[in-house]
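Standup notes
- DV: blocked on the single-chain target, sequence here:
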Amino acid sequence: MKRPIYTLLILSGLSGAAYAQEPDHLDEKEFMNYTFPMEEENNVADPEAAVSDTVKIAEAEASDTVKIAEAEAADTAKIADTAASDTLKMSRMDSVLAAYNYRHDVENRIVPPYENTICPNISARKWRYVYVQGTGMETRAYSGWKGVDRRCSEYSKIANEYKQAFGESVNVWLMPIPTAAAYYSPVNNPGTESDQFSTINLMFRELDDNVHCVDVHTILAQHVDEPIYSRTDHHWQPLGAFYAAKRLAALCKVPFYEISDSTRYEQHVIHKFCGTMYMYSRNLNVKNNPEDFVFWKPTKAQYTTTYIKYKFLGPHRVTSATEPYQERYFLDYADGSGAAYCTFMGGDARLTHIHTNAGNGRRILFVKDSFGNALPSFLMYSFEDIHVVDCRYFTKNLTEYVRDNNITDVVLCNNTGFMGVANIQNAIRGYLTQNPTTK
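- DV (later): unblocked, structure below
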């Protein structure tokens, strides 16, 4: 049964097809030498792409000094305004949540609107395939976001099909993960407008009643002044994944611990992290203002991590898979590594099973893109087993896999830039029926 249409919705959809080719399966050396693809939107190359990188970088070097000086002067005033309005921002957010009778421990089917009060009037400029705004340690690069409603609706239909396939014994959760543009894109800057909450509302409205929704858009909106998204990479920071995991755990009614609990978590930092956004933009302001990549390891959870690693012919054509083998969940990267986000499981091109000592009979499976890689690190106290399936790399039959591993909860948790990409949708839908071992 479908829910009534709410007049709240201002429908938009999404873009972000460039991320469908992200090279997270590469090792660090390959990662640093990888040539990133251009956006695939409408299959039309950006006119700037015809200009050689050498010319573009030279132009950037010549003009950056002037642009940075101008932006720094403007940003000084903006930072002062931001500091003066912190109380007002929180009161606005509290008023919105109160109007929607919003609670984080219950399932909310309507996502409240978000107003950018962090940087609403900052100037953003397109550099190659992404937008760059701010200066110094306030520099932020992100992909623009444009909406296509019907594509998002199709993803909701897939979630409904998952519930039909798995039956009443398995909880199916839809957890759209907003991209950074949802919170930090300027209000009136052409090309960067982002109304992702409306699209998430559309997706939730299209769900059947027995499919659960996880609104992380709202909990992240309450923490936009914290480093929840990377400034130099297209992923969120682990802190953003923590808040999303907290929301999911509350709805699943499983134990969960705060990362501030030093008896349960140990903080680690990779300094001078500059991720994929410099590769996409070639903007020197991004390169020259790296950030800290901060993550947490659970110290009291006992767990083992088992992988099946995929081998490729081309970027996404899986040709074979290894036998299961055990290895660390957290990999080590040095300060300055551009591959720091691969700390979690080493990337995407593998099937992962984490067995913990939670002992509560709850077994969760994520169907995710690389945003989902950071989630399991915060759920090792919450679930007895955590299975991680990438939306591009999986060769088994998922219906059989869920049955054989006694999965209790399946979470579809792509970022909103992926949810409307047709080949991603086709792959996730196909997992239910591909390669059955029994007829």
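- Follow-up: The mean pLDDT is 82.
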